[in-house]
Amino acid sequence: MRTWVNGTLLDRDAAVVSAFDHGMTVGDGAFETVKVLDGVPFALGRHLDRLARSAAGLGLAEIDKDQVRAACAAVCAQAPVGLHRLRITYTGGVAPLGSERGDSGPTLVVAIAPAIPAAETTTVAVVDWPRNERGALAGLKTTSYAENVIALAHAKGLGASEAVFADTRGRLSEGTGSNVFVVLAGELLTPALSTGCLNGITRQLLLEWSGAREAELPLAVLDDAEELFLTSSLRDVQAVAQIVGSRHARTLPGSPGPVTREAAAQFAKHSAEDPEP
Questions:
Q1: pLDDT mean over 187-198
Q2: pTM of the full structure
Q3: Rounded to whole angstroms, how far apart are CA atoms 208 and 138?
Q4: What is the dihedral of CA 87, 210, 123, 149, to 10 degrees?
Q5: What is the 8-class DSSP label of residue 33?
Protein backbone atom coordinates (compact mmCIF):
# COMPACT_ATOMS: atom_id res chain seq x y z
CA MET A 1 0.00 0.00 0.00
CA ARG A 2 1.23 3.47 -0.85
CA THR A 3 2.11 6.22 1.60
CA TRP A 4 1.20 9.91 1.46
CA VAL A 5 4.29 12.14 1.67
CA ASN A 6 3.73 15.89 1.34
CA GLY A 7 0.85 15.62 -1.10
CA THR A 8 1.89 12.59 -3.13
CA LEU A 9 1.04 8.89 -2.79
CA LEU A 10 4.28 6.94 -3.12
CA ASP A 11 5.25 3.28 -3.23
CA ARG A 12 6.97 1.93 -0.13
CA ASP A 13 10.55 2.26 -1.38
CA ALA A 14 9.95 5.81 -2.62
CA ALA A 15 8.13 7.00 0.52
CA VAL A 16 11.05 8.81 2.13
CA VAL A 17 11.73 12.17 3.76
CA SER A 18 14.89 14.28 3.83
CA ALA A 19 17.82 13.25 6.01
CA PHE A 20 17.62 16.84 7.29
CA ASP A 21 13.98 16.60 8.40
CA HIS A 22 13.70 17.91 11.96
CA GLY A 23 11.42 15.05 12.92
CA MET A 24 14.21 12.61 12.05
CA THR A 25 17.19 14.54 13.40
CA VAL A 26 15.79 15.76 16.74
CA GLY A 27 12.30 14.25 17.09
CA ASP A 28 10.58 17.57 16.39
CA GLY A 29 7.16 16.30 15.41
CA ALA A 30 3.74 15.08 16.46
CA PHE A 31 1.86 11.97 15.43
CA GLU A 32 -1.35 10.01 15.77
CA THR A 33 -2.18 6.32 15.46
CA VAL A 34 -5.71 5.64 14.23
CA LYS A 35 -7.55 2.33 14.10
CA VAL A 36 -8.94 1.54 10.65
CA LEU A 37 -11.47 -1.26 10.30
CA ASP A 38 -12.55 -2.32 6.81
CA GLY A 39 -11.23 0.94 5.39
CA VAL A 40 -13.01 3.20 7.90
CA PRO A 41 -10.91 5.18 10.42
CA PHE A 42 -12.25 5.39 13.96
CA ALA A 43 -12.58 8.73 15.80
CA LEU A 44 -10.48 10.51 13.18
CA GLY A 45 -11.88 13.90 14.21
CA ARG A 46 -10.70 13.44 17.79
CA HIS A 47 -7.30 12.30 16.59
CA LEU A 48 -6.93 15.36 14.36
CA ASP A 49 -7.95 17.65 17.21
CA ARG A 50 -5.24 16.10 19.39
CA LEU A 51 -2.69 16.28 16.57
CA ALA A 52 -3.45 20.00 16.31
CA ARG A 53 -2.98 20.43 20.08
CA SER A 54 0.32 18.54 20.01
CA ALA A 55 1.58 20.57 17.05
CA ALA A 56 0.61 23.80 18.81
CA GLY A 57 2.29 22.62 22.00
CA LEU A 58 5.51 22.03 20.07
CA GLY A 59 5.25 25.38 18.32
CA LEU A 60 4.85 23.81 14.87
CA ALA A 61 2.88 25.44 12.07
CA GLU A 62 -0.88 25.04 12.39
CA ILE A 63 -2.05 21.85 10.72
CA ASP A 64 -4.43 21.96 7.77
CA LYS A 65 -7.08 19.49 8.93
CA ASP A 66 -8.72 19.34 5.50
CA GLN A 67 -5.41 18.36 3.94
CA VAL A 68 -4.79 15.71 6.58
CA ARG A 69 -8.31 14.31 6.13
CA ALA A 70 -7.75 14.12 2.36
CA ALA A 71 -4.46 12.32 2.90
CA CYS A 72 -6.09 9.85 5.31
CA ALA A 73 -8.96 9.19 2.88
CA ALA A 74 -6.53 8.51 0.02
CA VAL A 75 -4.45 6.13 2.12
CA CYS A 76 -7.42 4.33 3.71
CA ALA A 77 -9.03 3.80 0.29
CA GLN A 78 -6.28 1.25 -0.44
CA ALA A 79 -6.90 -0.81 2.69
CA PRO A 80 -8.53 -4.22 2.21
CA VAL A 81 -11.05 -5.67 4.64
CA GLY A 82 -9.65 -6.11 8.12
CA LEU A 83 -7.84 -4.22 10.86
CA HIS A 84 -5.18 -1.66 9.99
CA ARG A 85 -3.02 0.94 11.73
CA LEU A 86 -3.05 4.43 10.22
CA ARG A 87 -0.09 6.59 11.21
CA ILE A 88 -0.18 10.38 10.74
CA THR A 89 3.19 12.09 11.27
CA TYR A 90 3.64 15.87 11.21
CA THR A 91 7.12 17.33 11.67
CA GLY A 92 8.96 20.63 11.60
CA GLY A 93 10.29 19.83 8.13
CA VAL A 94 13.78 20.32 6.72
CA ALA A 95 16.00 22.24 9.15
CA PRO A 96 19.65 22.81 10.11
CA LEU A 97 21.49 20.00 11.88
CA GLY A 98 20.68 21.19 15.39
CA SER A 99 17.75 22.22 17.54
CA GLU A 100 16.96 25.35 15.54
CA ARG A 101 14.03 25.03 13.14
CA GLY A 102 14.21 25.79 9.45
CA ASP A 103 11.76 27.74 7.29
CA SER A 104 10.96 25.13 4.63
CA GLY A 105 7.54 24.29 6.05
CA PRO A 106 6.25 21.15 7.77
CA THR A 107 6.39 17.56 6.58
CA LEU A 108 3.19 15.45 6.51
CA VAL A 109 3.36 11.68 6.17
CA VAL A 110 0.33 9.35 6.33
CA ALA A 111 1.00 5.60 6.20
CA ILE A 112 -1.06 2.47 6.73
CA ALA A 113 -0.21 -1.13 7.58
CA PRO A 114 -2.09 -4.26 8.65
CA ALA A 115 -2.58 -4.70 12.40
CA ILE A 116 -3.10 -7.77 14.56
CA PRO A 117 -6.06 -7.68 16.98
CA ALA A 118 -4.94 -7.42 20.60
CA ALA A 119 -5.20 -10.44 22.86
CA GLU A 120 -7.92 -10.39 25.52
CA THR A 121 -5.36 -10.24 28.35
CA THR A 122 -1.75 -9.21 28.68
CA THR A 123 1.18 -8.78 31.07
CA VAL A 124 2.70 -5.42 32.04
CA ALA A 125 5.98 -4.45 33.66
CA VAL A 126 6.40 -1.47 35.99
CA VAL A 127 9.59 0.42 35.11
CA ASP A 128 11.74 2.59 37.38
CA TRP A 129 12.08 5.57 35.01
CA PRO A 130 9.48 8.24 35.90
CA ARG A 131 7.21 10.10 33.54
CA ASN A 132 8.00 13.82 33.90
CA GLU A 133 4.63 15.45 34.40
CA ARG A 134 6.26 18.90 34.44
CA GLY A 135 8.23 18.54 31.19
CA ALA A 136 7.67 20.58 28.06
CA LEU A 137 6.26 17.52 26.26
CA ALA A 138 3.90 16.36 29.02
CA GLY A 139 0.51 15.50 27.57
CA LEU A 140 1.66 15.89 23.96
CA LYS A 141 1.90 13.01 21.48
CA THR A 142 5.28 13.66 19.91
CA THR A 143 7.83 11.76 17.87
CA SER A 144 10.35 12.11 20.73
CA TYR A 145 9.72 8.50 21.72
CA ALA A 146 13.14 7.14 22.69
CA GLU A 147 12.18 6.97 26.38
CA ASN A 148 9.20 4.80 25.46
CA VAL A 149 11.33 2.60 23.20
CA ILE A 150 13.75 1.88 26.05
CA ALA A 151 10.96 1.18 28.54
CA LEU A 152 9.08 -1.08 26.15
CA ALA A 153 12.22 -3.06 25.29
CA HIS A 154 12.81 -3.56 29.02
CA ALA A 155 9.22 -4.77 29.45
CA LYS A 156 9.51 -7.13 26.48
CA GLY A 157 12.62 -8.60 28.05
CA LEU A 158 10.51 -9.47 31.09
CA GLY A 159 7.81 -11.12 28.98
CA ALA A 160 5.39 -8.18 29.09
CA SER A 161 3.68 -6.37 26.22
CA GLU A 162 3.69 -2.94 27.86
CA ALA A 163 5.65 -0.86 30.37
CA VAL A 164 3.88 1.26 32.99
CA PHE A 165 5.27 4.49 34.44
CA ALA A 166 4.77 6.44 37.63
CA ASP A 167 5.28 10.20 37.52
CA THR A 168 8.00 12.05 39.45
CA ARG A 169 5.71 12.18 42.51
CA GLY A 170 5.16 8.42 42.56
CA ARG A 171 1.65 8.56 41.11
CA LEU A 172 0.46 6.01 38.54
CA SER A 173 0.66 7.70 35.13
CA GLU A 174 0.48 5.66 31.89
CA GLY A 175 2.04 3.07 29.61
CA THR A 176 4.42 3.73 26.72
CA GLY A 177 1.48 3.74 24.31
CA SER A 178 -1.54 3.18 26.50
CA ASN A 179 -3.62 4.54 29.33
CA VAL A 180 -4.21 2.58 32.52
CA PHE A 181 -7.51 1.93 34.30
CA VAL A 182 -7.90 0.30 37.71
CA VAL A 183 -10.88 -1.02 39.63
CA LEU A 184 -10.69 -0.14 43.30
CA ALA A 185 -13.52 -1.00 45.70
CA GLY A 186 -15.67 -1.64 42.65
CA GLU A 187 -15.03 1.81 41.14
CA LEU A 188 -13.38 2.34 37.75
CA LEU A 189 -10.58 4.92 37.92
CA THR A 190 -7.87 6.26 35.61
CA PRO A 191 -4.90 8.53 36.39
CA ALA A 192 -5.51 12.27 36.16
CA LEU A 193 -3.90 14.26 33.35
CA SER A 194 -1.85 16.07 36.01
CA THR A 195 0.38 12.95 36.11
CA GLY A 196 1.62 13.77 32.60
CA CYS A 197 -0.30 10.96 30.92
CA LEU A 198 -1.61 11.38 27.40
CA ASN A 199 -5.31 12.09 27.06
CA GLY A 200 -5.87 8.98 24.96
CA ILE A 201 -8.83 8.84 22.59
CA THR A 202 -10.03 5.50 23.98
CA ARG A 203 -9.52 6.94 27.47
CA GLN A 204 -11.67 9.96 26.59
CA LEU A 205 -14.46 7.80 25.24
CA LEU A 206 -14.48 5.41 28.19
CA LEU A 207 -14.75 8.33 30.59
CA GLU A 208 -17.87 9.34 28.66
CA TRP A 209 -19.34 5.88 28.16
CA SER A 210 -18.44 3.81 31.23
CA GLY A 211 -18.87 6.02 34.27
CA ALA A 212 -15.13 5.90 35.03
CA ARG A 213 -13.55 8.93 36.67
CA GLU A 214 -10.10 10.50 36.90
CA ALA A 215 -8.15 10.35 40.15
CA GLU A 216 -4.64 10.90 41.47
CA LEU A 217 -3.54 7.36 42.32
CA PRO A 218 -0.33 6.24 44.01
CA LEU A 219 1.64 3.60 42.13
CA ALA A 220 0.87 1.29 45.06
CA VAL A 221 -2.72 1.13 43.81
CA LEU A 222 -1.42 -1.67 41.60
CA ASP A 223 -1.06 -3.80 44.74
CA ASP A 224 -4.71 -3.38 45.70
CA ALA A 225 -6.55 -3.08 42.41
CA GLU A 226 -9.23 -5.69 41.90
CA GLU A 227 -8.94 -5.31 38.14
CA LEU A 228 -6.54 -3.56 35.81
CA PHE A 229 -6.72 -2.84 32.10
CA LEU A 230 -5.03 -0.86 29.34
CA THR A 231 -6.61 1.23 26.62
CA SER A 232 -5.28 2.48 23.30
CA SER A 233 -6.44 2.89 19.73
CA LEU A 234 -5.43 -0.66 18.76
CA ARG A 235 -5.83 -2.40 22.13
CA ASP A 236 -9.32 -0.94 22.75
CA VAL A 237 -9.84 -2.40 26.26
CA GLN A 238 -7.25 -5.04 27.19
CA ALA A 239 -7.27 -6.71 30.60
CA VAL A 240 -4.02 -7.10 32.54
CA ALA A 241 -3.60 -10.59 33.96
CA GLN A 242 -0.11 -10.17 35.44
CA ILE A 243 2.33 -7.49 36.61
CA VAL A 244 6.03 -8.42 36.47
CA GLY A 245 9.46 -7.00 37.14
CA SER A 246 8.96 -4.91 40.27
CA ARG A 247 7.88 -4.97 43.89
CA HIS A 248 4.34 -4.62 42.53
CA ALA A 249 4.55 -7.96 40.72
CA ARG A 250 1.39 -10.00 41.10
CA THR A 251 -1.17 -12.07 39.24
CA LEU A 252 -4.72 -10.78 38.89
CA PRO A 253 -6.89 -13.91 39.05
CA GLY A 254 -10.01 -14.12 36.94
CA SER A 255 -8.82 -11.48 34.49
CA PRO A 256 -10.70 -9.98 32.71
CA GLY A 257 -13.00 -9.21 35.63
CA PRO A 258 -16.63 -8.07 35.45
CA VAL A 259 -15.93 -4.32 35.38
CA THR A 260 -13.36 -4.75 32.63
CA ARG A 261 -15.76 -6.90 30.62
CA GLU A 262 -18.49 -4.31 30.95
CA ALA A 263 -16.15 -1.48 29.90
CA ALA A 264 -15.04 -3.50 26.87
CA ALA A 265 -18.64 -4.25 25.95
CA GLN A 266 -19.64 -0.58 26.23
CA PHE A 267 -16.70 0.51 24.12
CA ALA A 268 -17.42 -2.10 21.45
CA LYS A 269 -21.11 -1.19 21.35
CA HIS A 270 -20.68 2.56 21.06
CA SER A 271 -17.75 2.45 18.66
CA ALA A 272 -19.67 0.12 16.33
CA GLU A 273 -22.61 2.52 16.32
CA ASP A 274 -20.59 5.59 15.33
CA PRO A 275 -17.10 5.64 13.76
CA GLU A 276 -16.84 9.39 14.51
CA PRO A 277 -17.91 9.76 18.15
A1: 98
A2: 0.96
A3: 23
A4: 30
A5: E
